[in-house]
Design goal:
Length: 248
């Protein structure tokens, strides 16, 4: 183990974090559905974070299963609001998979949903979620905010503020925020640090504008990083210089 991954080097900087995990994290690039291997990879990283004493809540998306926007063109058949509800329900599938993966590693978890479905998960209650975190349980948050037309990015920012997280970790498949799409332009510049004002002014693709505004109001830092590199979630929580940090 090198210095960058030694125990002391990975001493947590943040005591409570929100990890925003897109649906693509549960599957392989370009494929739909849930991969057990990819889900277990997330669970193993989460377990290592718990073992360091960090309180962890994970907001899950569902792009690997269904995106509400994909039905927008067929609005005369499936209304846009209905499509968004379908997307919110799909996040619960990822939440259930992650819950079982974590519990197979002997991690205590609670799955909470913004849409009530008591036979499957607890309803999201702020005080109860905080209590679970204090008891060392991973809290998995599904169903977005329970409202259509609101992204899971905004749900993550909202939950981060409600649960008084110290940082919002935006897990992606790329290693930060770029001036342009790096796959389209090999000369695109990766930003190491950005301010909220820069993100809003330049309309950079970090999170949607509502999420950025929520974080800006609370001066809640956002770290955008590649979680596919093993150990990066731990490095992020330890405050290492990875990805792109958005702050004041």
């Amino acid at each position: 183990m090198d210095d960058s991954t030694s125990h002391d080097a990975l001493r947590p900087k943040y005591s409570r974090v929100i990890l925003k995990l897109s649906g693509e994290g549960f599957g392989y690039p370009g494929k739909s559905g849930i991969s057990i291997d990819e889900t277990l990879n997330i669970a193993r990283q989460a377990k290592r974070i718990l073992e360091r004493g960090v309180q962890l809540a994970i907001v899950v998306g569902a792009g690997n299963i269904l995106r509400g926007a994909q039905f927008s063109a067929g609005g005369e058949i499936i209304r846009e609001a209905t499509a968004h509800y379908m997307g919110m329900l799909a996040t619960v599938l990822n939440g259930l998979a992650l819950q079982d993966a974590l519990e197979s590693l002997n991690c205590q978890t609670r799955l909470q949903t913004a849409i009530r479905m008591e036979n499957v998960a607890e309803p999201y209650i702020r005080r109860r979620a905080i209590r679970h975190l204090e008891k060392g349980r991973v809290v998995i948050l599904a169903g977005g905010t329970g409202n259509p037309f609101v992204t899971t990015d905004t749900a993550a920012a909202l939950r981060a503020r409600e649960l008084e997280a110290k940082i919002l970790l935006k897990a992606t498949r790329v290693d930060g925020v770029y001036s342009e799409d790096p796959e389209q332009n090999p000369h695109a510049v990766r930003y190491e640090k950005l301010t909220y004002a820069q993100v809003l002014r330049d309309n950079l693709r970090v999170m949607d504008m509502a999420a950025i505004s929520l974080c800006r109001e609370a001066k809640l830092p956002i770290l955008v990083f590649n979680f596919k590199r093993d150990g990066n979630i731990e490095r992020a929580i330890a405050g290492h210089t990875i990805g792109t940090l958005v702050s004041d």
